[in-house]
Amino acid sequence: MKKYHVYGIGNALVDMEFEVTDSFLTKMNVEKGLMTLVDQNRQSELLEHLTGIQHKRNCGGSAANTIIAVSQFGGKSFYSCKVANDEVGEFYYKDIIANGVTTNMGENREDGITGKCMVLITPDAERTMNSFLGITETFSENELVESELLDSEYLYMEGYLVTSPTGKAAAIKAREIAQANGIKTALTFSDPGVVSFFKEGFVEMIGDKKLDILFCNEEEAMKFTETEDVDSACAKLKSVAKTFAITCGAKGAIVYDGEREIEVVTNKVSAVDTNGAGDLFAGAFLYGITHGLSYGEAGRVACSASSKLVTQFGARLEQSQVDELKAQELK
């Protein structure tokens, strides 16, 4: 038996979530609904205009949220990332350890600035992100812990790594190690804008062999496959992934288990914040398929978790909420 169910790699960002209006986004010239990479000066400018607005912070980044979800559900997970030897980096390190995740980070870290992601939530529950990567932009093969990867069932790669040359190279290296040693590979596309601008990079990250599982939403699936509808996208995704899960917002998800496509219907809820819903879906799903659930069953649990998350602010559920959900769904 492997030591870890999932070994994740991704950008380590401290998430700061703010409730804003559409007029704020317009005033500050922020493109709604996408993740935009910004420099430190731009992020500082935005923060100045948000002075006085209450917010909370968490250790985050897309893959971190997924890996923490695996841990919350009861799985064993490892996360390779990079933060600096600053106050924010210390907060990140302590927070991810407190969430039950083993990591490559230690007490001694490089000098620099830990990355931050501003998550701007509008009244329609849409999340818009402006991220300053800081030191995580130099995430590289040096942060990989091969011995821990070799002792994992799945490698989970965050799509945002494609935006950094060293991050993309690290993902490719990790994927090569995994495939050479019978470890299953999983990738999330992360963001529609990233898929649009970095499709060739994703092709490199995927490589010549099919991924074992791909996570994406409808828009990302269509952008990568350059199709106009989800059915056509599903057909094309089968050429790069043995299985996949496509989240479809309020409609639920489409799960392909390698033989058939399964439509998973989600609970009808009133969404206030969609930040982290896709990350939680992936984490719950990976927990499910590494603990004996079928793809359809894992999809149901993942949709239930995500539908619960979007009814509240924040990118993660509380542990008590996960425990309650497991009691209901995994009888």
Question: How does this model look, in words?
Answer:
- This protein is of the alpha/beta class.
- The protein has one domain (9-329): 3-Layer(aba) Sandwich (UDP-N-acetylmuramoyl-L-alanine:D-glutamate ligase).
- The protein has 13 helices and 14 strands.
Write a compact overview of the structure shown.
The protein is of the alpha/beta class and 331 residues long. The chain has 13 helices and 14 strands.
| Helix-strand pattern | EEHEHEHEHEEEHEHEHHEHHEEEHHH
Number of strands: 14
CATH topology: UDP-N-acetylmuramoyl-L-alanine:D-glutamate ligase
**Mean of residue pLDDT values:** 94
Uncertain runs with pLDDT below 50, 5 residues or more?
Answer: none
**CATH architecture assignment:** 3-Layer(aba) Sandwich
Q: Could you say which structural class the secondary elements and strand pairing correspond to? A: alpha/beta
In which order are the strands of the major sheet placed?
6-5-1-9-10-11-12-13-14
Coarse morphology: globular
Q: Which CATH top level class fits? A: Alpha Beta
Distance between the termini: 24 Å
* Helix-residue proportion: 25-40%
Q: Strand fraction band?
A: 15-25%
Number of domains: 1
Please identify which CATH superfamily we are dealing with.
Answer: Ribokinase
Give a quick account of the main beta sheet: strands, pairing sense, barrel closure: 9 strands, mixed
| Count of separate DSSP helical elements | 13
Cα-atom Rg, whole angstroms?
18 Å
